[in-house]
Amino acid sequence: MLDAMSLDQLRTFIAAADEGSFSAAGRKLRRAQSVVSTTLANLEAQVGFALFERTGRYPRLTEAGAALLEQARAAVDGMNAFKAKARTLAEGLEPELAVAVDVMFPIATLTAAVQAFQQQFPATPLRLYVEALGAVVQPLLDGHCRVAIIGSLPEIPAGCASEFLLSVAAVAVVAPTHPLAALAGPIPHEEAGKHVQLVLTDRSTLTAGRNFGVMSTQTWRLADLGAKHAFLKAGLGWGYMPLHMVEDDLRSGKLVRIDIELHARLGPGFSMHAIHMKDQPPGPAGRWFVNHLKQN
Prior knowledge:
Distance between the termini: 52 Å
Largest sheet: 7 strands, mixed
Number of helices: 10
Shape: globular
Structural class: alpha/beta
Radius of gyration: 25 Å
Order of helices and strands: HHHEEHEHEHEEHEEHEHEEH
CATH architecture of the largest domain: 3-Layer(aba) Sandwich
Strand content: 15-25%
Oligomer: single chain
Number of strands: 11
Helix content: 40-55%
């Protein structure tokens, strides 16, 4: 009986457990509740015991059902990975490589990777989207690219696989004429909040209504990191910048590093990851590009 078990049954089992009811699982899978119930009853007959308690208003996993749930997830994930790998091998070398890159990623490292890519794949055009926050992920979710390099968005979207690449140090800076430049650190959040904070805004709607590392009630939002850099040097506010972008300014005195109490949800930098949809991994050129970024 167990040999007749199908991935469809396992997917239905997982959906019912995650959604908390057979009707909700049916909506997620776009099936009638009766089909979900029948599928699960057949699965229970095959394994030889009940997976759900049906005595209450909502079905609850039995102890045995809970024990099998993670195995079911592993089986489905394994088959998804198998199909994704097979699709990649069948497609062969990509006719074009499209990559979305976080604006915080070190430009020298990116440039070196692009130069090496051009030598390795001279006939494969490269298209880059350089964005911040959710706008880095949006081309991936929309199917316009197969790889995204994220860092300013501090979370991995659902349905994506992730690989760590490198860490990028970030520092809070102001112009030497700015009032915060005269204060010895650590500067309390309340004091920093009295001054205009320059922050990047998201060109997408993925982070609508959310803020990352914003401490001030007075914020100027810019969609371009270069504009933020220029505004900081002009003394129009304070803000965080990747260290590699402002090292020359700090040495020349055009910008001053300030020590602000670390925000509970803001680390000292950005953790860069390469992500892709689990069912759409990069092809040979994309895989090579990610590996090159990781090695450098």
